[in-house]
Amino acid sequence: MNAVNNNQRRTEVDLIRGIALLFIVVDHVNGSVLADYTIRNFTLFDAAEVFVFLAGYSAGAAYLAMEARQGASAASKRLHRRSWEIYKAFVLTGVLMLLFGFLLAMCKVPAPAVRATEAPAFMAQPIETLFQVIGLARQPFVSDVLPMYAVFIGLAPLAIGWARKYPLAFVCGSVALWLMAPALLPLLPSSEPRGWSFNPFAWQLMFGMGLLARLRPDFVLPQQNIARWACTIGAVVVTMACMALTYLWMRPHVYEAWLPAWLPSMVFPLPKQSLAFLRVLSFLGLAWLVYLAARAGWVERVARFMGPVVQIGRHSLFCFVLGAVVSVTIEGFTYGIAGGRPTRPVALGGDLVAVAILLVVGGWYGRRKEAKKVAAKSAIVTA
Fold it and tell me: Which of 328, 321, 327 is closest to 88 using CA atoms?
């Protein structure tokens, strides 16, 4: 029974991560129609929080599984290898973004993604720009979450040891680092004055919460029924309030006429770079409700009918790189056809093509990888 439950939880995580990756793809296509209906339009956070939290959860799960089979040393080495794989994926994604941006610029496609891919810098100083990408000082379009991800996975074995033994101290240390994050950001190499798009000193809080959720659920989850009910009521209130704030955030004309100017400025904007408090609060409220849905078996039942999306989440690194290429290609295609910002029918067509590519190629890649694993196990048994 435990094995079945573990597998179900893994499938649920893969489903949610797959949905987050699809959101990331369409959110990065300027003019996208489907981007008007992703999670960022209904909450104060977006798919990035989901991706980073689940990265922490998955890192904890991978460590525990490997530790149970081969010991702590092998588990640590596995995460270090994964960190190196993520770094290589970042370099590959960064180089692809430079090349695709260069091609769009040469074709004179008026897509905003051209500047976001760092193509102008690449055309002006190609060698220096490439070295900046390799050194993490320049992080082109979409790829900017990967350097932070690689750092977190590389340091995860240390964090895991601390979180398992001293969960309260781990939380306090993570919160303290989050509070100091803006002052620490200049320590990182960057070609831009504003620094990394994702401040890892802040976003470690989200990754750490994912780790702790997997490693010490006894510490994270309330044990008494009354406490669970209180969390549920609080989560509903927070989620509804954040949905209302999101509605206002995206429609300033609704409140500008009757609210004093200083009041909205205390709430908006919500800096993503430093992981604003309301983003964290909004995420936690909805995360608790999703946890309850998963515990009731609803998410697992949905996963049965969304196999390709589960495959995208299961092979997230490959699909992330693929999604980055798809985002810039689709934006270039739709802007090229329209000669500027595309009409909604053209943009929707581009969205559907982007999603279809992710589902088809991601599903194919997942089935291929799993077939190889089955063949390798069969060969070992035969031998």
Answer: 321
Put simply, whether the predicted model's pTM sits higher than 0.85 gets the answer yes
Number of domains the chain is built from: 1
How far apart are alpha carbons 363 and 365 in whole angstroms? 5
CA angle 58, 63, 64 (to 5 degrees): 100
pLDDT tens profile 367-378: 888 888 777 777
* Dist. CA 63–CA 78, nearest whole Å: 8
What whole-number distance in Å separates Cα of residue 81 and Cα of residue 330? Answer: 32
Termini Cα distance of the chain: 31
Rounded Cα distance between 150 and 317, Å, is 11
Which of these, 1, 2, 5, 40, lies nearest to 19 by C-alpha position?
Answer: 40
| Cα–Cα distance, 241 to 290 (Å, whole number) | 17
Contact between residue 195 and residue 39 where contact means Cβ atoms under 8 Å apart = no
Contacts of 167 (CB under 8 A, 6+ apart): 212, 215, 216, 219
The angle formed by the CA atoms of residues 77, 199 and 51, to the nearest 5 degrees, is 60
The average pLDDT across 293-299 equals 93
**Residue 199 to residues 139, 259, 275, Cα–Cα distance (Å):** 13, 32, 8
Tell me which residue range forms the domain holding 289. 2-382
User: What gap in Å lies between CA 315 and CA 91, rounded to an integer?
Assistant: 18
pLDDT tens-digit map of 76-129: 999 999 999 999 999 999 999 999 999 999 999 999 999 999 999 999 999 999
Q: How many CA atoms lie within 13 A of 20 on its CB side?
A: 23
Contact of 139 with 196, CB cutoff 8 Å: yes
Tens of pLDDT along 36-72? 999 999 999 999 999 999 999 999 999 999 999 999 9
User: What helix, strand, coil percent values describe the chain, rounded to 5?
Assistant: 80, 0, 20
What whole-number distance in Å separates Cα of residue 83 and Cα of residue 81?
5
CA distances from 84 to 53, 112, 113 (A): 20, 31, 27
Q: How far apart are CA 139 and CA 129, in angstroms?
A: 10
